[in-house]
Amino acid sequence: MILASVSQYAPFILLQDDLAFKLEYVHPYLDGVYYPRNRTLRVSCFNSRKLSPVFTGGPGVDEVPPIWVDRTGVKANITEVISFGLFN
Questions:
Q1: Whole-model pTM?
Q2: CA–CA distance, 28 with 87 (Å, rounded to integer)
């Protein structure tokens, strides 16, 4: 299963650096359907850009220019469901 989303804050024709995306890939039954270890692979890629709420000017201080925080990364994990046969 592949899930994807793209969001942009400006008109689509004026592409700037504020394009955000998230892509997720899920691969169930990593070892096969009949293998007793029920493992799932999940991989997600993301990119986002936001204004930082931390860097602000205090009282009596000149206006501080906005600081952008960019996050880009990949996250992958493998999960395994272990059953002890209690409910079989």
A1: 0.61
A2: 22
Query: Between these two residues, 76 and 64, which has the higher pLDDT value?
Result: 76
Tokens of 40: 């799932």
Q: What share of the chain is helix, strand, coil (3-state, %, to 5)?
A: 0, 50, 50
Query: pLDDT tens digits, residue range 7-56?
Result: 655 554 454 556 778 888 998 888 877 777 788 999 998 888 888 877 76
Distance CA 16, CA 48 (A): 13
The strand pair at 38-51 and 2-7 is best described as unpaired
Q: For the sheet containing 2-7, what is the strand order?
A: 2-7, 20-27, 38-51, 68-81
Q: Where are the beta strands (DSSP E) in the chain?
A: 2-7, 20-27, 38-51, 68-81
Tell me which DSSP letter residue 80 carries: E
Q: 3-class SS at 40?
A: strand
